[in-house]
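Q: Is it fine to ask for two folds in a single conversation?
A: Yes, each is treated on its own. Send the first.
Q: Here.
A: Result:
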Amino acid sequence: MIENLPFGALRVFESAARHLSFTRAAEELFITPAAVSQQIKTLEHQLGIRLFNRHSRGLSLTDEARNGLPALVRGFESIADSVHRIRSSNRDSTLTVWMAPSFASKWFIPRLHRFSQAHPDIDLNISASPKLVDSNADRHSIPAENFYRDNVDVAIRFGMGDYPGCRVDKLFPVYAIPLCSPKLMQGEHALREPGDLRFHTLLHDDTRYEGRPDWATWLAAARVSDVDSSRGLHFNHGSLAINAAINGQGVVLSMKVLAAGDLAAGRLVVPFDLGLPLEYAYYLITLNEFSDHPPTAAFRDWLLAEAAADDDTPGVEYA
């Protein structure tokens, strides 16, 4: 009977079926892969059928699971939509904004006071998540359920910009440039041309996402062949790599937009006039049905104006 089925296990099945991965379902639901596996086994036992075919290279859905999945997905979306609408009716002046941590700390937060001054009647809830970048598996989608489940009104995402069911506004293109402390522009091995990097530590942002700039690509564009692109210090968070550069630990290859505040304050400089345009960009995303919600529209207008004021091009030649 449906009333005896565990709702949590159905939710786990839906996530695992969408990703065809227990590991990715665990990451999405903030539980362990072992817990996902156990929930699936419990559900299979209660239903009396197998839901997944286990292969050496991954998972596939059984015919029974494949036939039932679309209706289950619609059911969860309907529940989430209803909850979202109930919550929205009582929070007309509150907006939840979801973005990647580096973008939040290096670009968004320094400008946040201007939104608060312009819209003192709107309260913002800021949620920073490393999942707000496209991966191979989800580069063309951002499930509506993510908005509903986490009660999110607006997402700012680094990706390709193809998100069905959503209004998508491009904030700005993105360029990868070397950045360093002004201290590295002086001394015996001052940075004057790309080949001088052989005397300095390379700082790497190893955050796992599609479209991430890397030293090998930049060095090739700069026609530098005698610098080992893999050496140096590696960080799992972009803002950590930028902070290491601010402290004179080496030269970081990062997105200029993330360093705008540090460049303006003189904490960082661009040692070489060579930037690398990236295929990915930052986008503001809202569900179509909520895109005209007054706080959402006010936030979008403000953010687009802030992005338009960010001139990312003077003085840099792009490869």
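Q: Second one now.
A: Result:
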Amino acid sequence: MKRVLCVTFFFLLVIASRPVLSISEEMLPETEKVFGKYSDRVVKIQVVEKGSGAKAVIGSGFFVGSEGTIVTNYHVVSKLILHPDRYRAELVEPAGTVRALSVKNVDVINDLALVKAEKSGAPFFAIAAREPQQGTRLYSMGFPQDIGLSIVEGTYNGLMKHALYRKTHFTAPINPGMSGGPTINASGEVVGVNVSSRGQAISFLVPTEAVARLMKLADTAKIDPQNFLEDIRSQILAHQEVFFSDDLIRSGQTIRIGHYRLPGQLSPFFKCWGDSSHQENSPYQSVDHRCSTDDYIYISGEHSSGIMRFSHRSITSDEMNPFRFNHLYSESFKTSGHYMAGNEEEVTKFECKSGAVKRGEIIFKTAFCARGYRKLRGLYDVVFKAAVLSSENSGLETELDISGVSFEKAVSLTKGYLGMMTWEK
């Protein structure tokens, strides 16, 4: 026992007599090294309501040039763009210094914005030249919930498969306030911009190719801040020619429900689901089919655009008499309908036109409803509903919702959609 104590005491003396060694950068954990080396390039952005001086929006951004050029999300600064008389944007530095921010350019389709602060000599990020390999460890930075600059480790999981525009799937928790911040690799190159999350560590990034395009555009085409809304309108109209092309309807797949052939998956970037209801005590049965896209365009916190979705519902009954069934069918047609967000400051009220349309052997009762965008003139949201008539114990309803299109495009898409429907024995 004495020998053990002596040996232990000897080693303690040896350790105590050694000089204290500093931890080199190479010995630090990877996340700590990344944060220590690159965090000074990430900034907090706040949008302030001028009347009260209170913060209305908190987001993140990052320097991409030594002269104060910063990348963030469009949705972080959207209030300033939509209501420049009511809001201002500010950069808050780590030391608490506040600097005014001005918007240089926006890409509303990819939810990006370039802003500028009067600051020179700031360290800035390089943009990665290529996408990483799936499984690569990445690091996202930003200001979640305004509690301070944070870093989150995550995994690159490739591009979304059901999306028209490229968007990166990033497995990590990106929380509110981190929007617009960078996601970087271990070498400090930006591989994406934090943009959204669906919870459970499912997050999305804007790929760097969109960042590079916007930076190049900002260098070659200066946008007058007074014309941002016109530029956004033009971007959405250009988007509809790609997203809502005439081929979308002509080449789309169809499905069969009962005796009806109906629009199905119109393209690979649509997701479709189906279900049926056969409850034991219910006097009728139903079959539902719905399709929608993952793509959308953020306009404001109350209004999204660039969306297309549709649904079909077949209802049949062997128990209800024709009068009861007709009442059920009529009520279902009145109450069905997708909710479209948007307040009166941004969109007009829906105006509807009802009628009847014959398509081959099918006669439809129809309702075509449209509302206009107040600030983005010439853009509309449309809801089209149709129900098959002249059946005593079965019915079919369909609905098409389109947002962010010209009126002419909405009419064309609606006609094509209805034209895909046929009756088969």
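Q: Anything structural to flag on that second result?
A: Two points. Residues 252 and 266 are 4 Å apart (CA to CA). Residues 235-423 form a domain with the Protein Transport Mog1p; Chain A fold (CATH 3.40.1000).
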